[in-house]
Amino acid sequence: MTATTTPGAHTTRTHPFPTVDEIARHCQQHDEPETVHIEVHLTGTLDPPRLTTAFDRALRTHPRILMREAPRRWYTSRYTWELTDGPDVPPVSFPEPHPNVLEECRARALTEEPPLTTSPPVRVECVPHPGTGNTVLFLTINHTALDGPACLRVLATAADLYGGRDNTPPPAPPPAPRRPPPSDLPSSWARPARVAPGTPEPRPGNAMLVRELPVPRRPKGAPYTVNDQLMVATARTVADWNEERGALRPRRPLRITMPVDDRPRDATMPIGNGTRLVEVPLSLAELRRPTPSLLRLTAERTAALRSLVRPQLGHGAALLTSPYAPVAWRAAATRALRTAAAPWTSTTLLSNIGRIPYPLDFGDGGRADAVWFSAPARMPRGLTVTTASTAGRLHLALRWSRTLLGPGDGERLRELFEHHLHATQEEAR
């Protein structure tokens, strides 16, 4: 990391984009912004000046979030982050309350990404819930800069500072022992199934549907986890959706990308894009197994793949980001390769945040009783499934590209998902 001084400005520290950030920056599309949406429902009301002060102090507690993309010349070989001493613009705003304010904030989270050129690349909107008057926080993150768990860590610090309550998460479980790679995986050369088109809308961008569901039950001592139940439900949902549209291709396995986050959740958590991506393949023949057998297979496969040590985006990404040429040239090459590799992109993404590790307790401002996340749904995947659990409930967000699906399609996918998730607890008893 180097320090530079801009005339008339404070000293800034700079460092090159990590591999994940650079690939995301190369592939930015204004029609489908790469945002992460976090929606936190609290049981009380927040005082605007106190929240603004708490969030400002939280940013300074985690200074890695106070960053912006540095200007560059055409021949520059790397994108560079500038770390700043404070925010360039106030990150917290308070939109006027009205009956449709939640829908407007959700839409804004999918269509208006915080710019990379101002610090921090995060937007926080605080609005009263039209039905209860309690507070809802909307956090919109530019995914080129950081991911949802990192931003949630900063929010937990803000809750500490606002309410004076301890939001320390419980100790993380010890890492699972490494397992050998599964030997029964479908061929990695096979083109995966795609989500069949539905009734797309005549405009670009993402749309989203959020629902609150019961956390699926599982027998005590079951060899599988809730994450495995979600994986099975997601795979069977896509398979049924494709079959309904006559687009089921038996020779094409479903490949579901699963983010894995090994970072500590305490105050030492590295802020940035810290998850690595694992692809879990399931063939149609495997999806037709009895549910108990499929759950055991999925548990064995996800555990083994999760334990593999590999770069966040695979070995090829590091080569793409080597500074062998001006960054503009490498960006063009990366986009061309992404287009060429589109048929081999995974079918969909399942991001299970799991039980929210922080109480998100704002003292007299209330605590979180619902938290939704949604991950970008850019084509060629076009569909992502994101889940988190809070207060004993599962919070589901389905997000899709409007060039692939429409609102009615989202409702049908939600129906299929609920059906298959319920089946994992009924049939696996």
Give a structural overview.
- The protein is an alpha+beta fold.
- It has one domain (12-426): Chloramphenicol Acetyltransferase (2-Layer Sandwich).
- The chain is built from 10 helices and 15 strands.
- It has a 6-stranded mixed β-sheet with strand order 9-15-14-12-10-11, sandwiched between helices. The protein has a 5-stranded mixed β-sheet with strand order 6-7-8-3-13, sandwiched between helices.
- Helix 2 crosses helix 4 and helix 5 crosses helix 7.
Search tags:
Chloramphenicol Acetyltransferase, 15 strands, disordered N terminus, 30% helix, globular, alpha+beta, 10 helices, 429 residues, six-stranded mixed β-sheet, five-stranded mixed β-sheet
Q: What is the name of the CATH class?
A: Alpha Beta
Lateral strand order in the biggest sheet: 9-15-14-12-10-11
Instruction: Supply the CATH superfamily name.
Output: Nonribosomal peptide synthetase, condensation domain
Which architecture would the CATH scheme give at its second level?
2-Layer Sandwich
- Which word captures the global form? globular
